[in-house]
């Protein structure tokens, strides 16, 4: 890949019980330090849901840091950055998924966070979906969460999924990792999940939404070390 192409990372940090209050406070306190990270054009620090995939129950030990890097040179120095070290010193473990966007539509707080490098793939694919709910649709949305989680739990080809978000119930997102685009599309368009999407569109649940697809990349092969778990 071209060293000047945009790289996206999402890191999941797991904290021991003694540091969870610190981690929660970083949702506000870390904003300014993250803004100073070199080569980052967009970032979001988010809480996560417990259980399988999206869940109404928060996972108080795990937080997600999504970062969009201007180039490979900045991305491969991630483990030396203040943004990484600040959390790594307090967490029990962490793991980063590296990826490049191949499709994106919609906005995140009015921004288009991902630059698209259009390409087709027969291999693994990652997906981020994000929505800001209308206040009068929150209860309707929450009523569908258990069904959505059950559908994801039985999805063939799903490697990993985690509910992520900036605000409980109001601003929700999911990250999922699939064996192939075919597996992902089978779940999205040919299962119970399709009915939920139909309700979303028909009843206009969302004030803002974004859907993006990515291909995983291996920074080891690009001359950089991946963070250890």
TrEMBL record:
Keyword Oxidoreductase: yes
Top-level taxon in the UniProt lineage: Bacteria
Entries under InterPro entries matching the protein: CrtA-like
Keywords in alphabetical order: Monooxygenase, Oxidoreductase
Molecular-function GO term, any one: monooxygenase activity
Protein name: Spheroidene monooxygenase
Species assigned in the record: Cyclobacterium plantarum
Phylogenetic placement of the source organism: Bacteria, Pseudomonadati, Bacteroidota, Cytophagia, Cytophagales
């Amino acid at each position: 890949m071209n060293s000047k192409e945009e790289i996206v990372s999402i890191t999941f940090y797991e904290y021991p019980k003694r540091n969870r209050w610190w981690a929660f406070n970083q949702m506000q306190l870390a904003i300014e330090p993250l803004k100073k990270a070199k080569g980052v054009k967009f970032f979001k620090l988010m809480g996560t849901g417990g259980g399988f995939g999206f869940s109404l129950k928060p996972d108080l030990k795990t937080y997600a840091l999504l970062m969009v890097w201007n180039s490979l040179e900045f991305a491969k120095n991630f483990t030396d950055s203040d943004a990484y070290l600040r959390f790594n010193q307090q967490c029990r473990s962490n793991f980063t998924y590296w990826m490049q966007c191949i499709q994106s539509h919609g906005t995140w707080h009015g921004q288009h966070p991902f630059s698209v490098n259009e390409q087709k793939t027969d291999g693994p694919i990652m997906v981020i979906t994000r929505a800001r709910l209308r206040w009068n649709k929150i209860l309707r949305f929450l009523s569908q969460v258990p069904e959505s989680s059950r559908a994801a739990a039985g999805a063939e080809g799903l490697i990993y999924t985690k509910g992520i978000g900036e605000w409980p119930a109001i601003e929700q997102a999911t990250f999922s990792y699939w064996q192939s685009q075919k597996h992902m599309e089978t779940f999205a368009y040919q299962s119970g999940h399709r009915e939920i999407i139909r309700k979303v569109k028909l009843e206009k649940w969302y004030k803002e939404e974004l859907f993006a697809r990515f291909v995983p990349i291996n920074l080891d092969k690009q001359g950089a070390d991946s963070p250890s778990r």
